[in-house]
Write a structure and sequence with these properties.
56 residues, two-stranded antiparallel ribbon
């Protein structure tokens, strides 16, 4: 499952910059974007950098 907590763990393991690179990638799956949109980590198909950055 993809949500705020899983994103927080990913940031802790890989760092904020790598997380943002992954989320901004053209290859990032739409299905996962849809899941993360439920927690507002994506808005309009784009990463919500402000919210993602706050998870550090």
């Amino acid at each position: 499952m993809y949500n705020l907590e899983s994103t927080r763990r990913f940031i802790a393991k890989h760092g904020l910059q790598e997380t943002l690179k992954l989320f901004a990638s053209e290859n990032f799956p739409e299905k996962i974007k849809a899941e993360l949109s439920k927690d507002f980590l994506f808005i309009g198909g784009y990463p919500n950098v402000e919210l993602i950055s706050s998870l550090i």
